[in-house]
Amino acid sequence: LERRSTKQMRPASLTKVLTSTIALEELEPKSPVVFSSFAKATGEKESPVPEGESFVRNDVIRFAMIESANDAAVALAEAVGRKRGAFSFDDAISLFVQAANQKAKRLGMMDSRFENPTGLDNDDHYTTAQDLFRLVSYVWDRHPEIWEFSRAMNADITSMGDKAYHIEATNQLLSEFPALRGGKTGLTDLAKGALILLYPVHPDRTVVIIILGSDDRFGDGRNLIH
User: Fold this and answer.
1) Interval 193-202: pLDDT, tens
2) Cβ atoms within 10 Å of 211's Cβ, excluding its own
3) Burial, 131: exposed, middle or buried (Cβ in 10 Å; 0-12, 13-18, 19+)?
4) Which of 101, 123, 128, 137 is the most exposed place for a label (fewest CB within 10 A)?
């Protein structure tokens, strides 16, 4: 079932699925990811983590996937860029964006372009539902832990400095549909509502639901599941 699946649209925070994928592939599991002053200056939705706090890679991915924290996505992108040789924050983000677009092209996402790790509105930051399906399928096959993280309705995450942080999921459908195998929310003024849902319809079959540009993303997702 498709409707305008090749139309280029803003993905909002669905971008963080790609950001998390690149972080998994390029950062070591135990290497510290720091919430720098630059990450904390991202704006919009952010985590309760203060500037300077650091976490292991997967815990920062959990902030990005569960709470959809923009500062977490930027922290991951900065860590990737610096590992690639950047000395400044701007260069780190530039190298990350380059990596994101290279990855998208390798996955066959030929109608997509990414300009930041968060999905904040940018005229040159866009994708299609069809391209996102390619990304979702790749993550399902190669990095299922990303979807596993996204199933949590809340989480307690401890920093490398042994400080605990509690976060709540942005996906309102998790409590209604406990069988969900993963998902990601997105919302900006220009993108409107965006949503990815992975829902089992058979023990060995999962349906991927991708919604872009919605005025009621959770209502649309609920209707499609029903």
Assistant:
1) 999 999 999 8
2) 23
3) buried
4) 123
